Amino acid sequence: MKILINILITFTAFALMEAIAWLTHKYIMHGILWSLHKDHHYKKRGRLQRNDLFFLFFAIPSGFFIVYGIAQEIGIFLYSGIGILFYGITYFIFPEVFFHRRLNWFNNSSSSYLKAMRKAHLTHHKQGRNKEYSCFGMLVFPIKYYK
Q: For helices 75-91 and 2-23, what crossing angle results, to 10°?
């Protein structure tokens, strides 16, 4: 039963990160910290970008939760930190590796979900700083991108 609860905490933290990432992307990355994020939209993709600093927004709380959870033996912190970590890994693999090809790990996929996810992400890039009509999520996006 305890393992199931820990898995549920991890999955819940992972799922909540989609909403937190959406809000952060829309209101911080496309808002007050656009100066750090804009190279992700407009400049030629290189190995490193100023936008890469945003990983700290999630890595620091994740690391803190994991260390604190282990030190204090508080499972909810530990497994929440692991859920945030898994979301961060997913965020690295899909937008940075699969969509932008910053590493040559994947080239194509026949998955309709991954194709729709890529289309939503690329549409977001075409809209630049526009916060009204752009898709800010990574894993959840409107059904219209499947067409």
A: 50
